[in-house]
Design goal:
Strand order of the largest sheet: 1-3-16-17-4-5-7-6
Shape: globular
Number of helices: 12
Amino acid sequence: MNPARRCSALLSQLCVSSRGGQAARGPLTPGTGPVGARCCHPGGGGRGKGPTCPQVKPSGAASPGAAAVCPMGSSSSSRRLFGTLAQSLNSTQPDPYPEESPDQDLDHEVNPDQLLRECEEALQRRPARPHRDLVYPRGTEPSRRKHNPSIRVMQWNILAQALGEGKDGFIRCPLDALNWHERKYLILEEILTYRPDILCLQEVDHYYDTFLPIMTSLGYHGSFLAKPWSPCLDVKQNNGPDGCALFYHRSRFSLQDTVHLRLSAMMLPTNQVAIVQTLNCRATGRWLCVAVTHLKARSGWERLRSAQGANLLQSLRSITSRGSGQSEAESGAVPLVVCGDFNAEPSEDVYLRFSSSPLGLSSAYKLLSSDGQTEPAYTTWKIRPSGESCSTLDYIWYTQEALSVDSLLDIPTEEQIGPDRLPSYHYPSDHLSLLCDVSFREEPHKLISAQHRGPGPIGGPSEAL
């Protein structure tokens, strides 16, 4: 099938309402409307180093202001596995969707540029998303490493559709802004703009009918784990339970191992989960362990979150120290990236547990601050009947000794977010997406070898790192 027609067919089948079969507003008709009119991220680079990616600027530079996928349903395709997913889970279980499967053929990927243009066409009536720039930590531009390219990681609580429409009560957000007809395109537009190599999502309740087929068509492998007792199931006409999803691009990584965790506290299973995958980077041959989680929400549950964090750290320590008979296993644990909505401010005990863990984790977004030690003022900003909430709850943790952060996506200003806060017509979730480019640090034994070799013929290093 022609790539453009494949894009249209894929999105068209997803914009049919599971309630009444009505097409989404703003039908996807290639060639109509001002294509690219919503592009608020000038510049180049990205997984796709294409024209839709943001500009990169030094840390501390001001961001310019900016104007500011079918509705919730119960389709059989997305609910057929509910019985299995909602059962009580063991502490670990294998991924039921192995990497190699017929529907994940790299030779038949959808063109992401075409898909992005069709998202823009479907969203012509909505204002553009806030402009965000990539910034270098501490104003230092990273060197271009041909044999060690950066790995782009995105973390995002996308807001479960059932919760947004049926439970969260965003009193300043019009209900129409939350309709799945268009909101799914806003979510997909954000992902396609930055094209991460690794994508970690929380509150995913349209995994099987939306995210799995779309991300698979874009060349990603996906894994999903639902909460055992999802609050989405309390909402009439829900689309099944919400949970965590982890995607990696198959051109960049191969899968070594997947572990699904049901987090425990004080030896008792809880309703929160995590996915942990060990990946092999095709560009470098190095191993990377990636985890995604979503800890217990709301104040008064600090001790439970701390216990869940301790349980997750213990599991991660065991998983990363197993090695795989590879070089990392000989020189230490496999490098680690942990993404999640922790529902915890930096003052909470679970944050302190992660920052002082023997795993040597550091929070990437501290590097946006002038001192490199302070988290952003907020990663979520919403207004509910209980009041306005502006908090830092979302994090990307990384192994500091093994990985370096090359760039981060900055945080929108209060003016860009707008007086009605999030979600809104111009942003699909109450949480902001976080994104950073990380790269492997040179392994110690290679650094020693390089030092022994001495300088190159013109007085510089004999080998670029």
